Queue: 2 jobs
Job 1
Amino acid sequence: MPYQDLARAHPGGIVDLSVGTPVDPVPPVAREALAAAADSPGYPLTYGTPRLREAAAGWLRRRHGVTIDPADVLPTIGSKELVAWLPTLLGVRPGERVVFPELAYPTYDVGARLAGAEPFATDGLLALGPERVPLVWVNSPSNPTGRVLPAEHLRKVVAWARERGAVVASDECYIELGWEEHPVSVLHPDVCEGSHENLLAVHSLSKRSNFAGYRAGFVTGDPRLVRRLLEVRKHAGMMMPAPVQAATAAVLDDDAHADEQRERYARRRAVLRPALERAGWRIEHSAAGLYLWATNGTGCWDQVRALAERGILVAPGEFYGDAGRDHVRVAITATDERVDAAVSRLQ
Ligand SMILES: Cc1ncc(COP(=O)(O)O)c(C=O)c1O
């Protein structure tokens, strides 16, 4: 893309803030567990090891006030594959509508299409009228906006979906990265009122533990739905490699590395945000997660160009839906050195 070349041509080199890929080291606790499990000649279980399921349940209880039975945890190969295949795995049929936020990670749309279903981007469920839909995605904290949905809002979505027999799938891959607001899981008692019926929470280790290269996540929630997913995934060969299962359990048991990583992002965000503001951008939402959702009032491509001229590459908001046409998404996932370079170029 030409703007990438423009940013690359900057004498100080490109500062790539266009993708949310982790750049900091994989924590030693993970590498040690991975190495210790390197001799894994047999097939791993699709269901995962009991240790992994216990670790996932322990993490949700400890960090997010969510109580689940470890039996209801199912490992995934990162969360993107689950997002892309969930409508198919749940048996969503052609012609049915899969609902997701107006501004969203593009894979919800992909997943609807893979199932032959109709993607439907809306923030207002009332727009659906009395129509029954099989699946509604929520994503808090949001990619791309960093918006956090309060428990009250999530509770309404859950009530709406339950009345219609819809499944609510909650993509919670940024849940550990709340800044001004505290994200809450769809499985928290304040949201689900004690029942996980029709609910799935989707988690990822990519951001919390710099694990994007390991491909590790899990899904949990309604035991009936998890069993169904397990059944299909077993026969489809969707299993997490055994050494990755061991490393995933190790990072879920450890909070120190996650706190350290959070601090790195907090610092980058604390310098980038005011630098963008001083340069004429307004930051909206962005109360959590790894992105600043920014606008200077012009079209997104003009903003991408203005920043690329300073050697800073960002993502145009329209990648995430038409409603993003006047915004850009600025990732805080670059090294301190690159973030500082961006800050000085914005002066
Ligand atoms: C909202 C959202 N969901 C899911 C994913 C997938 O992450 P992974 O497959 O690394 O778990 C991402 C990645 O950036 C994301 O932003």
Note: The pocket of pyridoxal-5'-phosphate is lined by residues 20, 78-80, 83, 105, 139, 143, 171, 173, 204, 206, 212, 217 (CB under 6 Å).
Job 2
Amino acid sequence: MNISVLGTGYVGLVVGACLSETGNNVICADIDRAKIDRLTNNDIPIYEPGLDPLVQRNQREHRLSFTTDLATAISSAEVVFIAVGTPMGEDGSADLEYVLRAAEHVGRHMAREIVVVTKSTVPVGSSGKVRNAIAKHAKFPFYLCSNPEFLKEGTAVEDFMRPDRVVLGIDSERARTVMTEIYSPFLRTGKPILVMDIPSAEMTKYAANGMLATRISFMNEIANLCDKLGANVDSVRKGIGSDSRIGQSFLFPGPGYGGSCFPKDVKALVRTGSECGVPLDVLAGVETANDRQKKVLLGKVRSALGNELKGRRVAVWGLAFKAGTDDMREAPALALIDALLTEGVSVCAHDPAAIDHARSLLGNRIDYAETNYEALVGADALVVVTDWNEYRHPDFERVKRTLKQPVIVDGRNLYDVEKMRALGVRYHSIGRPSA
Ligand SMILES: NC(=O)c1ccc[n+]([C@@H]2O[C@H](COP(=O)([O-])OP(=O)(O)OC[C@H]3O[C@@H](n4cnc5c(N)ncnc54)[C@H](O)[C@@H]3O)[C@@H](O)[C@H]2O)c1
């Protein structure tokens, strides 16, 4: 099938590469020339495990190509995926400007009957606006599909190749037939295609992210209470996660959620609710709790080093909003670093993938280390912010030797409290006893 994907960010690039892997001819188009130039040269602008070989192989075998020429990409397509960004607008709603601009391009340049798929996360009811934007210029019939994406950065290729489910919001048989054909190679293990109306598909995406963010904020608040009452959140987590109605996933407390999706999608859903006169108090609380959680690590640094932080130096392990990605959008590390700098603390950070992004955001306000151990030199404390695998079992003797004093603030509960105590580390984590 001839497919075009508009937008080659974290979602569009993965979608395009994976769809070419199953034999489709895919053109990925983006308005960012620098990005397209890099992609054409097999230089992948994002860190996403497993993506490089997919792009290289399919580009070499001429099933995948990249262009800034949206007209050519759209005119050759039977199916167009819109995967452009939907950033947070000033009032908290999702900004549809890029989606609608892409939709207008589709209408202007389509050269046959096509299916237009909204992959971007758009508020419930947006399909009407997308339809109008396409229809303004369309000379051929077109069929809409809302196909929200559930991939996770860090495991995006695996998630797309082996999805838990595919959600299709459609209002035509044509869209159902075409989309079922496109997805059938990815669903051979029997995972379902859930076909529904378009508003329900749009709502499913927001409800999924809202639910996941709720679990995180809930556990963060329980952990903070454990801190005060001397309970251990690890035991509590296992205690509740063993209940089959609850399950173990997404119950790990931490420094607050970040990334390009949860913060903006929670805000947008709360906004949609208030526009409709349906207050979403639970989700509004989830957001407030998350904003507060992003300040917890600074409080723990204070507990460890005292209130007067001016002139101290702190090593930060992990800048990306989570392990497996270089994405720093809304990353908890940014909130922590900002707060530390405001206190007059100097910061040296390490991250296996996000240093380039960090430099573009933070410039020379902080120092950057080549290795995680190098970040510790001359530091009064280590703060672990991202749960990269390489931080899970460090050489603790070396950590102790290199730090000015053995202080670790662990925002991901990676280390064993008893082990830290035995090593003589002054150790603070989230919702567990200190050592
Ligand atoms: N990142 C995730 O983990 C994730 C997961 C599921 C859903 N989503 C949703 O998918 C959408 C895309 O997210 P992302 O993280 O890939 O965004 P991104 O910011 O990484 O990429 C968006 C890309 O779209 C391009 N673009 C903007 N306008 C364009 C146009 N008119 N034509 C062609 N390209 C255009 C931009 O240049 C950019 O490269 C968002 O709605 C997001 O909420 C993201």
Note: The two ends are 59 Å apart (CA to CA).
